[in-house]
Every structure is written in structure tokens, then in C-alpha cells.
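Sequence, please.
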């Protein structure tokens, strides 16, 4: 595995791979690699000849009151995990190489970037859109694998690919969970043992929704309200939002229609840690 830090060097390698008719798969992360990230690498391995993993803690997607400076950066450990997972190139640039002093151009997401996570974290998705697009140009992938864990982000990336006519196939990877049901996340390390077990309430909410929908309950906001109640009554936890959206447009859904797909999106605070989770349902 080769470690690359300069965008122009990564670009030159990607260009050469393309000229040699190599299929490039990319996985973009902020590091602190875990089973979720590694499942994306595995999918990339299965569908591309060359796998590029990027590690970059992107400042432009963090709000001023967020955890940019505390974000875990266990680089040596990440290198070992990436190598063992079969990554061919690890692209890990310094912030200054990606955002030099005179960097000015950013992408502006449309309405989808301003709802839900976008409303709670103003500017977050513009930062995501900008870095993902830059990394597309740097790594020149045919395929890019993103996790359903960040479902709204995935929807926004698909929108970017459509809106900007990018010739890249986006592959969605299912959410990897711990045995308790808690979705694996780099931020889980901030949870105390007590908070960690309380945090499983998000997954219990998803299971509750599954039962309701299997039982043909049609009132989606009512199911969401029940889940909010479950989270709110868990010591140490506070719901931020619980909402069903239609899978196509990510707009809040009301009555479940037969055969249509919906996604339950959850965000909650467990102690001082904000967690998100989601699941897709067919009514
Ligand atoms: P992050 O490093 O948190 O920005 O995540 C990088 C990529 O890994 C994104 O596409 C995430 O959606 C994906 N990811 C993070 N956690 C998980 C998980 N538990 N299961 C599947 N994919 C995940």
C-alpha cells in the first residue's frame, strides 16, 4: 500500500491507472477506521481493480461548536487497518494541500442540504459536497462507496453526481452495527459505558418502527412520535429529530402507502454525544 499526501501526485497516479484501464474504487473517510469503513473497502475491493482510501478530517464540514479539534486521528492504526483490508493507495493530505490559503470556491447544496442534518448543522453539507467533489477530481474513481449510515449525505452525493454530470457510480453500503444494535461510528469512543448502552435506544426505535410497519400502521408521524418518546424516557438521552421521509426525495412522509419506500431518520443526544441512525422500510 502506498501512502500519498499530495493531491497532484494522487491525480497523476489515478490518471496512469485509468490509462492502464484499471477500474478505480474510492472510499472516503475521516479516519479512525472501524468495521463500518472496512465494510466499504471490502465492497470497493469486490467491484474495482484498484482501491483508493482517503483519510481527511475536513474542517469545512464542522461547525464552530463541533468536535474538529478533538476528532480522533489514530493515523498509524489506520495505516495498519487499511493495509490489512487490501487498500492499494491511502490518500491522506494535510489540510493546507486541500485548502491552500487562497482557496475560495465551494459548492452550495440545494434544498436537500438545508433540511434535517443540514438545518441542525448549517453549512455542513456544503462542506461535505465541496470535499467529496474535490476528492472525486483528485482520485478519478469509476466507483465510489458511501455508507447508508449517513443516509442524507448519500442522497446529497447522488444529487451532486446527477447535477454535475459526474461519470461515477455511487455504491451504497449497509450500516454495520455492534451486537447491541448500536451503529458503529468513530464518535462512539466519546460515549461512557453507561451512555453506550443507553444509545442502543436508537436501534430499539428502529425495531419498534419495523414492528409497527409490519403491523400495517400507516400513520408515520405517530410511529415517529412513539420513538421520540422512547428516546426521551431513556436516562441520559434526548431526541433531536425522529422522522420518516420518502426515500426518493427525502421529504417528510405522512401516510404510509403500499409498496412505497420510506426511511426513518433518527438523531439524538446521548450525554454530550450526538448520534444519528436510520433504516429503510417498505410499507
Ligand atoms: P466518516 O469517516 O464517518 O466520514 O465515514 C466515512 C464513510 O463511512 C461514510 O460513507 C459513512 O457513511 C461510512 N460509515 C460510517 N459508519 C458506518 C457504518 N457503521 N456502517 C457503514 N458505513 C459507515
Amino acid at each position: 500500500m502506498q501512502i500519498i499526501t499530495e493531491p497532484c501526485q494522487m491525480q497523476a497516479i489515478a490518471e496512469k491507472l485509468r490509462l492502464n484501464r484499471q477500474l478505480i474504487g474510492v472510499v472516503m473517510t475521516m479516519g479512525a477506521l472501524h468495521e463500518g469503513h472496512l465494510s466499504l473497502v471490502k465492497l470497493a475491493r469486490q467491484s474495482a481493480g484498484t482501491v483508493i482510501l482517503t483519510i481527511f478530517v475536513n474542517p469545512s464540514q464542522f461547525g464552530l461548536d463541533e468536535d474538529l479539534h478533538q476528532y480522533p486521528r489514530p493515523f498509524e492504526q489506520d495505516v495498519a487497518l487499511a493495509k490489512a483490508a487490501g487498500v492499494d493507495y491511502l490518500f491522506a493530505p494535510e489540510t493546507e494541500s486541500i485548502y491552500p490559503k487562497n482557496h475560495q470556491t465551494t459548492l452550495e447544496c440545494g434544498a436537500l442540504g438545508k433540511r434535517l442534518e443540514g438545518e441542525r448543522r448549517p453549512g455542513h453539507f456544503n462542506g461535505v459536497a465541496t470535499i467529496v467533489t474535490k476528492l472525486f477530481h483528485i482520485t478519478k474513481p469509476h466507483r465510489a462507496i458511501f455508507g447508508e449510515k449517513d443516509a442524507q449525505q448519500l442522497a446529497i452525493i447522488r444529487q451532486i453526481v446527477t447535477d454535475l454530470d459526474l461519470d461515477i457510480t455511487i455504491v451504497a453500503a449497509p450500516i454495520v452495527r455492534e451486537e447491541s444494535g448500536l451503529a458503529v461510528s468513530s464518535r462512539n469512543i466519546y460515549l461512557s459505558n453507561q451512555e453506550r448502552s443507553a444509545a442502543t435506544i436508537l436501534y430499539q426505535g428502529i425495531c419498534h418502527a419495523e414492528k409497527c410497519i409490519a403491523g400495517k400502521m400507516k400513520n408515520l408521524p405517530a410511529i415517529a412520535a412513539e420513538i421520540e418518546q422512547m428516546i426521551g424516557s431513556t436516562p441520559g438521552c434526548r431526541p433531536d429529530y425522529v422522522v420518516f421521509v420518502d426515500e426518493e426525495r427525502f421529504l417528510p412522509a405522512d401516510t404510509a402507502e403500499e409498496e412505497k419506500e420510506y426511511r426513518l431518520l433518527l438523531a439524538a443526544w446521548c450525554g454530550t454525544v450526538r448520534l444519528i441512525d436510520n433504516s429503510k422500510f417498505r410499507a
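The domain at 2-173 is CATH 3.40.50.620 (Rossmann fold).
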